[in-house]
Structures are given as structure tokens and as C-alpha cells.
Specification:
The complex is a heterodimer of chains A (319) and B (339). Chain A is mainly α and 319 residues long. Helices cover 75% and strands 1% of the residues of chain A. Chain A has a domain at 52-266. Residues 315-319 of chain A have low confidence and may be disordered. Chain B folds into two domains: 2-134 and 271-299 and 321-338, Rossmann fold (3-Layer(aba) Sandwich), CATH 3.40.50.2300; 136-269, Rossmann fold (3-Layer(aba) Sandwich). In chain B, helix 2 (40-58) packs parallel to helix 10 (274-286) and helix 5 (136-150) runs parallel beside helix 6 (167-182). Classes of the chains: A mainly alpha (319), B alpha/beta (339).
Chain lengths: 319, 339
């Protein structure tokens, strides 16, 4: 609830600063490696791709903030199914873009609600519940989409890749959404409840919060964001694909953790998502341009992520 | 390889062969063990299998040819599936395997139970199994050969690799390296991992584009060409000659570019219909024919001349395909026996 100035003065102790520093460092290395070429275009490309990572990262962040054990592993399957739903509903027609987006978000919402029902009614731990629901979702996706790559309407594809002065328009929209998410977390009853539940679920319950409703809303929100991401990705990559979300299982969790959100819950960090997403893309750029073998690249990615988490985590414990 | 045939296998083969030159396979049941169905290639593969199965059953060549697909790409799930198929008493298992060696235990168990195992696309290395592959190495070489006809003076190339750790990725890569060695005017200036997936390839290519010098061609493995094209377009760079992999969206993009500015390229990949070939080869083995354990069949290529025809027959969002017949299988077996 502190003011902007106070927040600025505490900048250095904020864990999310590390992800941005990491991103800047890796960016500098990549530019040096490329002999000074493409410094600006690396940034704009990273921003364009980070929009998707942040979108799912936001949902995952809310879920993880709910406290230990809370996680959504159904995101990749959700994204894949939503991409097919969106493209089928849009049917290549510009007039049906809004309808398709709505359908994809609705599909994601249903998935999120089902996830919560599994957790709540059958008392399955979220890890298992969302993992098993992702098998169901994937099977639904296979029979629904038949694995075909359905093309987006032209206007939708143009919209998703559109850039103003080099900056992806979509990324700006996602940035606005992240600011909104930050405000929701800090200023609304729902947001504060998510933090309270994450900090101490017993205390939250005793304080009169409806823990069930908070968790229900959070899983539904995460599902809906996944659905939205699926629709946008289908437009961005030029067609739906059940595999389109595959990389977002680890990435969605990695950006949350690298970004400084507490894995133990109760403390979320929105700006860190952007720093982490940018950094992950910069790492890919650096390693892809380095000409190293794939094994070495994967090894380096892992080591860099561990280094940043250690730095960010170490800083946090000092506070 | 033949000496490695387990004793029981030889006994089985001899027994069948001696019983009759043409054993009756009308009572035989084949199972297809498949480890994934989530992309257009796999869907087309399953359709081709179903089509061939329908023909085989209606012609009384087989009693059943059932399909079993695991929901994920995990080796353990498929190994368990193969064990189940053994218990269900199938006479033969055709398999598109998740791993070349991790399933060998289950495959060996099937062989020991006198079940014929024919692997295709994703092959298994167990000596008792049959393998149907396309010449991926040549496919890699041909990409560079084609580019050499387009750019006699050579130039820079970007390579998109497939799924790391798979035999297919390694072999195509070796082919490309061999092609570049044969045409030293070309230089691979960048290599990224595309996982045979348009979205992954798009992201990977976008991540290196800004640091790359101009490239004249993109050599890849199929299912990644359209993603690469998207990345080049987004970066505002001229499209190089991108080798395609027979996906309908790749072909449609190629046609669109060709109509616009005469863009020409070359496309090749393993036809999903290789499953139908596997079905007929399995039937031939059950029939007591002598079949070499390693069969190489041609890949399906599309040139500018074939483009319109290929686009007409490929389903929207699918992949260009051919479904093989029993005659094709017999021919393939003959061609490989001569070697």
C-alpha cells in the first residue's frame, strides 16, 4: 500500500530487480557476441515473445501465491485446446474474432473451474489434479481439433503481430493487463485475500475470509488467462496446434520463481514476471547464437536460472 | 543382423515358411502401438493405417488391425501398452516408438512371445524387430544439393534442428553436414532447435535472426518451415529459400509467395502413409515371406511442378500424404532384399 516514492527508494531490495539485471547482462553478452549487431531488434523481439510468457505467468503467479502445493500444470494442454477452439470458432472470418477470443477464454475458464472442483471435491492435491486434467484436456483437444493446423483470420494474425515503432502492440496490452493484475493484488479484497491465504491459510480462514472462494476464483482466472494465451498464440504462430503450449509448463513456473514471487506463497511479484520473461528469451538468443551444441545450451540455461534464483532468493532472506 | 535373430524367431519363421509358402493371414490380428496423436502428421498417419486396415480386412488378408495410442510421448506408457498388447494375444505389433532403445525390453518380450514386431518412423533397435525407415541422411543431403542448384555461388545457411536426442534429428543433421561438405561454398552460420514444431521454430529463429548475417537458405527437418518464414517476415528480412516439410500450411505459404514473386523451394519428408506400408509389410511377414529386418523406402518430395497437385490433395492444416498398397509393400521388400 506504500506510495510510489517509497517503492522507488526500496527498489534495490526488491527481488524482481535481479531478473531485469540478468536480462540486461545476457542481452549485453548477446550483442557483444553478435559484434554489436541487432541490439535494438533483440529487445523488440524479446518483448514480443515475452507477452505470451507473462500472460500465462500471471495466472501461474496467482495460483502459486495461494501457498504451498498450489500449481497449475494443465496450462500447456489448456493453451493447446484453446488455440484450436479459437481458430475453429473464428473460422478464418474477421467478423468472428471477438467470438473466437471469447470462446477460448470460456474454454480456459471451464478448465480452471474443473481443476478447482477436482482439488476441492475429490481432495486431490493440485499437482496431481491439474496434471491428470491435462491428459483429459489433451484428449479432448485431439478429438476436437484432429491435430489440424487451422489458420487464423487475416485481421487477427495482423493484430497479434502488429508493431508500433518496433514495439509489439500485444505486449503493450499485456503490460496494461499486468499493471491491472498488480493493482488487483495490492488494492482489492480479492488480491489481498490471495496473499493472506498464501501467507497462512488457517489465519485467513479464522479472519473470516472465504478460502474456498478465493481458490476457486484463482484457478478459474489462471485457466482463463491460459485460454486467452492459446488464442493469441494461434494468431501469432499462424495456426492452432495442440503442441503450441508445450513450452509453457516450465516457462510459466520459471518466470514466476525467477521474477521473485515466493514459491512458498503469500508474496507475488508482477514486474519480476517481465524481467524473467525477457531474461529467458535473451538466454535463448545468446545460446542460440553462440553455436554451442544443444546439450551445452540446455546445461547453460539451467545454470543461469539457478544462479538468478539463488541471487534473488539470497537477497530476499537478507531482508 | 540376421545371425542375431533369436532362435525362437528363426523357428517361428521356418515353421511358417515350411507350413505353406503362403500362409493364410486372414485370421491374424495386428495392433498398432502409437505414442502420440496430437499433430497433423500423426493424425494423417493414423488415417492411412485405418484406410489400409479397412482394405486388408475387407479382402480377408487380416482379421483385425486395431489402433492403440498413448496420450503422451512417454516411453514408460508405451512400454506398458506393448506389454498389454502381448497379453491380448495379437499376432503382430506395428509400432511408432517413442524411443529407439528404451522400448527394446518390451519389444524383446513381444518377440519372445512369438509376436512379429515391425517398427516404422520412430524405430526400435531390438534385433528381433523389423525397421521401416526413409533415408533421412539423403533427405538432408538433397536439401543442400537443391540449394546448390539455386545458388551455385553458395552463401550462408541457417539450420533448424529437430527434437534433440532423437535418431531422426541426428541423421538428418548428418545429411545436411555431408551436403555442406560436398558443396563447400555454403556455410551454416546458425543452428537452432525447432522440435519439428512451427511455434517453437518461429521463436527459435526469431531469437537468432538479429545476430545473423544475411542467409540465402534455411535447411530444416519438416514442420518448421512455416514458423521460420513467419520469423523472417516479422523481422522484416527478405525470405531466404526455406526448405519445406510437406505440411499444408507450408505448401500454401509457398504457393502464395510463388504467385506473388515467383518464390520457389523444395519440400520433402517422410509420408505419414508409411503406417500403411508398415501394415502390409507386417502382413507379408505373417504370410511367411522373407523380409529383411531393415527396409528403406523413399521419402515423399514435392517440387514446384508438384506443388499445385499436392495442395489439392493435402487436407487443410494437414500434411501431404500417400497411402501404400500391398503391391507397394511387396515392391519395397524386393528392392531391399536385393541390396
Amino acid at each position: 500500500m506504500s506510495g510510489q516514492l517509497a517503492a522507488l527508494s526500496r527498489l534495490r531490495t526488491r527481488p524482481w530487480i535481479w531478473s531485469f539485471l540478468g536480462a540486461a547482462l545476457v542481452w549485453a553478452l548477446a550483442v557483444i557476441l553478435a559484434g554489436g549487431h541487432g541490439a535494438w531488434s533483440v529487445i523488440t523481439t524479446a518483448i514480443a515473445f515475452s507477452a505470451f510468457t507473462v500472460l500465462v505467468g500471471l495466472g501461474q503467479m496467482f495460483v502459486i501465491t495461494l501457498g504451498p502445493g498450489n500449481i497449475d500444470l494443465s496450462l500447456p494442454a489448456n493453451i493447446g485446446l484453446a488455440s484450436a477452439v479459437a481458430m475453429k470458432v473464428m473460422d478464418g472470418s474477421d467478423g468472428r474474432i471477438a467470438l473466437g477470443l471469447l470462446a477460448a477464454v470460456a474454454a480456459g475458464l471451464v478448465i480452471g473451474i474443473v481443476n478447482y472442483l477436482l482439488i476441492r471435491l475429490l481432495r486431490i492435491p493440485p499437482l496431481i489434479a491439474t496434471l491428470s486434467s491435462s491428459f483429459v484436456i489433451r484428449s479432448v483437444g485431439i478429438s476436437y481439433g484432429r491435430g489440424l493446423q487451422i489458420k487464423p483470420p487475416l485481421a487477427f494474425a495482423d493484430l497479434v503481430v502488429a508493431r508500433l515503432g518496433g514495439i509489439s502492440v500485444l505486449a503493450v496490452l499485456v503490460l496494461l493487463l499486468s499493471i491491472l493484475a498488480g493493482v488487483v493484488l495490492a488494492r482489492t479484497v480479492y488480491g489481498r485475500s490471495v496473499l493472506a491465504v498464501g501467507q497462512n491459510i488457517r489465519a485467513a480462514r479464522l479472519a473470516g475470509l472465504s478460502v474456498r472462494r478465493v481458490r476457486f476464483l484463482t484457478y478459474a482466472l489462471c485457466g482463463a488467462l491460459g485460454g486467452l494465451c492459446g488464442a493469441l498464440l494461434a494468431g501469432f504462430t499462424g495456426g492452432s496446434s495442440l503442441d503450441v503450449g508445450a513450452e509453457y509448463l516450465l516457462t510459466s513456473i520459471a518466470v514466476v520463481v525467477i521474477g521473485g514471487t515466493s514459491v512458498a506463497g503469500g508474496m507475488a511479484n508482477v514486474p519480476g514476471l517481465w524481467g524473467a520473461a525477457l531474461m529467458l528469451f535473451m538466454i535463448a538468443t545468446l545460446l542460440n547464437s553462440s553455436g554451442l551444441g544443444i546439450g551445452v545450451r540446455d546445461l547453460m540455461t539451467g545454470l543461469i536460472i539457478i544462479a538468478v534464483i539463488t541471487l534473488a532468493g539470497g537477497r530476499r532472506s537478507l531482508r | 543382423m540376421k545371425r542375431l535373430l533369436c532362435g525362437t524367431g528363426i523357428a517361428l519363421l521356418l515353421g511358417v515358411t515350411m507350413g505353406a509358402a503362403h500362409a493364410d493371414t486372414s485370421g491374424k490380428r495386428i495392433a498398432l502401438s502409437n505414442n502420440y496423436a496430437g499433430n497433423s502428421w500423426r493424425q494423417a498417419m493414423l488415417q492411412s493405417w485405418a484406410q489400409a486396415a479397412k482394405t486388408a480386412i475387407s479382402e480377408h488378408q487380416l482379421a483385425a488391425a486395431d489402433t492403440f495410442t498413448t496420450p503422451d510421448k512417454e516411453v514408460t506408457t508405451q512400454a506398458a501398452q506393448v506389454q498389454n498388447l502381448i497379453l491380448q494375444g495379437y499376432d503382430a505389433i506395428a509400432i511408432d516408438a517413442a524411443s529407439p532403445d528404451a522400448l527394446n525390453g518390451a519389444v524383446k518380450a513381444a518377440c519372445d512371445a512369438h509376436i512379429v514386431v515391425v517398427s516404422f518412423d520412430g524405430i526400435v533397435t531390438a534385433p528381433c524387430a523389423y525397421r521401416i525407415v526413409v533415408d533421412y541422411k539423403k533427405m538432408g543431403e538433397e536439401q543442400v544439393n537443391y540449394l546448390a542448384t539455386r545458388f551455385p555461388k553458395g552463401g550462408n545457411l541457417l539450420e533448424i534442428r529437430g527434437l534433440a536426442g532423437t535418431s531422426i534429428d541426428n541423421v538428418i543433421h548428418e545429411g545436411i553436414v555431408a551436403g555442406v561438405a560436398a558443396h563447400p561454398q555454403f556455410k551454416i552460420v546458425g543452428s537452432v532447435e525447432g522440435d519439428w514444431d512451427e511455434a517453437t521454430a518461429q521463436k527459435a529463429v526469431a531469437s537468432v535472426l538479429s545476430s545473423l548475417p544475411p542467409v540465402v537458405g534455411v535447411v530444416d527437418q519438416g514442420g518448421d518451415g512455416y514458423g521460420a518464414a513467419q520469423a523472417f517476415a516479422a523481422a522484416g528480412r527478405p525470405e531466404p529459400v526455406i526448405i519445406m516439410g510437406n505440411r499444408q500450411d507450408e505448401l500454401a505459404w509457398w504457393k502464395q509467395q510463388h504467385d506473388k514473386n515467383g518464390y520457389t523451394t523444395w519440400s520433402a519428408t517422410i509420408a505419414p502413409g508409411i503406417s500403411s506400408l508398415a501394415l502390409w509389410v507386417t502382413q507379408q511377414v505373417l504370410d511367411g515371406k522373407t523380409v529383411p529386418h531393415d527396409l528403406t523406402v523413399p521419402y515423399l518430395q514435392i517440387t514446384q511442378a508438384d506443388l499445385d497437385q499436392a495442395l489439392k490433395t493435402a487436407p487443410v492444416g494437414g500434411v501431404a500424404n500417400i497411402t501404400y498398397t500391398q503391391q507397394d509393400a511387396i515392391k519395397a521388400i524386393e528392392a531391399n532384399s536385393k541390396k
